[in-house]
Write a structure and sequence with these properties.
By secondary structure, the protein is α/β, with parallel strands linked by helices. About 35% of the residues lie in helices and about 30% in strands. The chain contains 6 helices and 12 strands.
């Protein structure tokens, strides 16, 4: 394995390949005692003690890269889950089968905003924003606009699934980006939160997450009783759950 040095981003190791996707591997030396690897923002970051020599560094990087590769391959959905959707100027995006054209412009302002007009979503970003910052600002603004535009349609889907399934009380529906969870049901206020990425997921996967969270309104833990109730509504829930675990990183805008 080759390791090359870049002053700006640290050392670079051979990327990890999952299907057609390449996951960059970045190596950083810091004032730390132990070495470790983690997945952050779609890349593997390996941190090494600054005092570690070149030969020991290469050996440690090789070992950590191998271990985290196996972990990612065993559960790519967990490690590659990224709550940030990516959008480009002129792009056609199709949440829940609807269609919107994305228009992005840079303006002399300090904040980013997006609005929906018909089937056009217009986002304005600050002229001074750097490329990485622009991508994050665009994602947040357009995701918020899409959530609002998709809320009526998603509400109908939730109501349909709930009425023929758990029949749980849903007082409020929230759609927002998340790097940690696909959904959450709050017993306290009866709100159902769904990850923005589910607007682009295959319907069986969206249905599974909704059923999963609405069953939590009745059973909080992931006990046998919980899974038995999920199975009563979705006999093939294991296959859908497995797909989400193994393929969720392929969900894009």
């Amino acid at each position: 394995m080759e390791i090359s040095l870049s002053e700006e981003n640290g050392m670079r190791a051979e990327p990890i390949r999952i299907g057609e996707r390449e996951i960059p591997v970045r190596v950083i030396k810091k004032r730390i005692r132990n070495s470790y690897a983690r997945v952050k923002n779609g890349e593997v970051v390996i941190e090494l003690p600054a005092s570690l020599g070149a030969r020991a560094s290469a050996k440690t990087v090789l070992s950590l890269r191998s271990r985290i590769s196996k972990a990612i391959l065993s559960n790519p959905g967990r490690y590659l889950m990224d709550g940030q959707l990516k959008f480009a100027d002129g792009q056609l995006t199709r949440p829940l089968g609807m269609e919107f054209r994305i228009c992005i412009s840079r303006v002399a302002r300090s904040t980013c905003s997006a609005r929906v007009s018909g089937n056009i979503i217009t986002a304005h970003i600050p002229e001074s924003a750097s490329q990485p910052a622009s991508e994050e600002l665009i994602s947040k603004a357009i995701s918020k606009a899409l959530s609002q535009a998709s809320a009526p349609r998603l509400g109908e889907i939730v109501e349909k699934i709930n009425s023929s399934g758990p029949k749980s009380e849903v007082r409020r529906l929230i759609v927002k980006p998340s790097r940690r969870v696909w959904g959450y049901y709050s017993i306290k206020d009866g709100s159902l939160m769904l990850n923005t990425k589910l607007l682009y997921a295959p319907y069986p996967i969206l249905e599974y997450v909704i059923i999963h969270e609405l069953v939590h309104a009745k059973i909080r833990s992931h006990s046998r009783r919980f899974w038995d109730l999920v199975r009563s509504f979705l006999p093939d829930y294991k296959e859908r759950r497995r797909w989400l675990r193994e393929n969720s990183f392929t969900i894009t805008s």
